[in-house]
Amino acid sequence: MGDIQHVIDFIPGSIISNKPAYRMSPKEHEELQRQVKQLFEKGLVSESVSICAIPALLVPKKDGTWRMCIDSCDVNKITIMEPQSFPRLTSRVDIIKSLCVREMNGRLHSRLVMGYIVSSQGIEVDQGKVEAIINWHIPNTLHDVRNFHGLASFYRRFIRNFSSIAAPLTKCLKRESFTWNTKAHRSFEEMKGRITRAPILALPNSDQYLKLIVILLMWVLVLFFLKKVGQLPFSVKTQQFKVEIFNL
Length: 248
What we know:
Elements: H1 26-42, E1 56-60, E2 66-70, H2 73-78, H3 89-106, E3 111-113, E4 116-119, E5 122-125, H4 127-134, H5 142-154, H6 162-174, H7 182-196, H8 206-228, H9 238-246
Antiparallel strand pairs: 1-2, 3-4, 4-5
Helix pairs in contact: 5-6, 6-7, 8-9
């Protein structure tokens, strides 16, 4: 397991859930044991010494196989929820930009803020993080593939045809045992290149994006009114034009 150990904080004075297993047929019980053993072999779970026990159940899938589900309703009721939600990326970017402006005015030395180097020259990606991805070792286990696939998935909305590029890695995760082939290696190297090349790790320039939207909207309004008064020098479908703009 990883070096970071996570804990679940319960409400003080709560009765810890300790439920018996649900009644299952011999076939379902055998399937449940098989899935648990598989999770052990992949290193995704480990034995627990906690007095907290919650039952598991099997739900049939469309392809005839079973999905194991955990009934954690009682645990959720006594769990202390995080009072603060995760910060939005846009707000974090605004903080970094404000720090950059202050450093430019004060001519301060560069500093590391949230994985970015902020200095009087602007905002740059921490090269240490880029090198860590470039030097990422070739996966040797399913756990290694899952770690890299999880990192790449974080940037999937910025990578065109992400699903097609990552398809060989996704197939590796669906197999019962670890298998590494030429296609998986090509996908691994391609994904590393896509993640570390600009503009994936670059901060978005919201000012430029806002200017583009304003200019496009102005053109939409101009074309709309010209068409209304019948002075449009050429034929254009205004409604279709607006739809195409908002889909950018």
